[in-house]
Amino acid sequence: MIFTKLILAHLLGDFILQPNSWVADKENRKLKSKYLYFHVLIHTILSFIFLWEVKLWWVAVLIGITHFIIDALKLSFQNIKTKKRWFFIDQLLHISAIAGISFYFKEFNISFLQNTEFLKIFVAALFLTTPASIVIKILLSSWTPVSEELNRLQTESLTSAGKYIGILERLLVFTFILVNHWEGVGFMVAAKSVFRFSDLAQAKQRKLTEYVLIGTLLSFGMAVLTGILIK
């Protein structure tokens, strides 16, 4: 249970008990900010409290040290453009440190990599991300509607939003099938239809509507077929 306890301490220390004013001060003053050290101290204390074993005091201290090093790297190298990237790097490193400690106590092992069912699900989920997006893009390449309306819609859209929407919807559909909740697939189709095709109806572009409809059906079809094959 060491992993769960340390993750709980991390969530409380990094998100619940860290005011925005502390974050702003750390980003402005970096290693000179007193709140950086308060923040590390809180993590150390929380880790010790949740572990609640005197003999594990060194684990709490190690968490504090690794947290300081990771946060110091983040504050030293991040800038406005890389702030989002460094947030995820920071969290990944913190979780990796906790996982490493848990691995030391033999809470984890890599035997799951020998599990055939796990590998099948992992490979299927991986296929439904970028590989499926590329396959759909290639299949639709000969039908891409070239028009001012398409260019306008792409300009008004968020960068790569369509790609990530497709990935998320395929993974959700795949998950619904694995847990035997096909009604969730129907909900996803209905939700996509309401939000997406209402915009296309206003655009009054028949070719564009057909293009998006084919892409949507291909996306859902791949997810459903993949789910059925895994089942």
UniProtKB/TrEMBL annotation:
Pfam families: DUF3307 (PF11750). It comes from Chryseobacterium defluvii. Keywords: Membrane, Transmembrane, Transmembrane helix. It comes from the Bacteria. The keyword Aminoacyl-tRNA synthetase does not apply. InterPro entries: Phage_phiKZ_Orf197 (IPR021737). This is DUF3307 domain-containing protein. The chain crosses the membrane at residues 35-52, 58-75, 118-140, 171-191, 211-230.
